[in-house]
Amino acid sequence: MRCIRCKAPANVEVRRHRSAFCSGCYPGWFRNQVQRAIESEGMFGRDDKVLVAISGGKDSLALWHALLQLGYQADGMYIRLGIGNYSQHSQSASERFAAKHGLALHQVDLKEEYGFVVPQLRNQREGKPCAACGTVKRYHFNKVAVDLGYDVVATGHNLDDEAATLFGNVIHWQTDFLGRQGPVLASTHPKLARKVKPLFRLAERDTAAYAVIERIDYILEECPMAVGAKSLEYKDLLNALEERQPGLKQRFLVGFLRGGRKALAGRQEPALIRECRECGQPTTGEVCSYCRMRQRKRRQVESRMAARGS
In the chain, at which end, N or C, are there fewer CB atoms within 10 A of the end residue's CB? Predict the structure, then answer.
């Protein structure tokens, strides 16, 4: 194979685009894809302050790196989830990246500041804390962004992530989620930051290649709490189809965003946003899901203590 730009021997193949690039040309193509996503979806402008949700993995660090190379004002935000060695490694990778490039990395320590860690939030039925972990991340990424004056929160969700989420929502016909799924979630309240996904057209293999070529030091291990998650099964199914039909995931996702999502969104009533009576953060109920989760955890602890004392 030859690089489609300079005709040198290619190092990276992008099958869905019937393209290949050498290591010198590939980073420019990758960043161009990020820039096109930002511009086509109106995600943010040059004067906006961007807070990048950092996990220490290839996607979030590749996104942060690409935004900086493109000239955007981007700081990082990391949450100490308390998931054993995985969290220690991901925190170290995030801190090394920030230190290497002289960047600001805001951090939230759940155990020290809020008295719990994610493994304590296991769902009793499935034994996994994934749903609760998502609630924790969304809450704190938004809170830090609003408190510190950032205009937008950017996450490293890639094409594989978005296609798998869409697949799961279609299987279960989650019309509320389908109507909201997209690369941009607009702010509907002064305490809600805009959420964007600049990597939604780029696959995991694309970000991995970018990270290797740009020598980004990221963690290789996946979250141990996610083993057996349905989203991983959906990814495996879609990957098998992608091998036979290159470009299937992108056609599936982009086709939905262009047609299906608009039809569903038009049928939904806009949600009434209010402030949580416990913490003041925006929510659709009297108490936000984060505070309800913490209340449940508090009751469980109190119940166990009472049982020991009896």
Answer: C
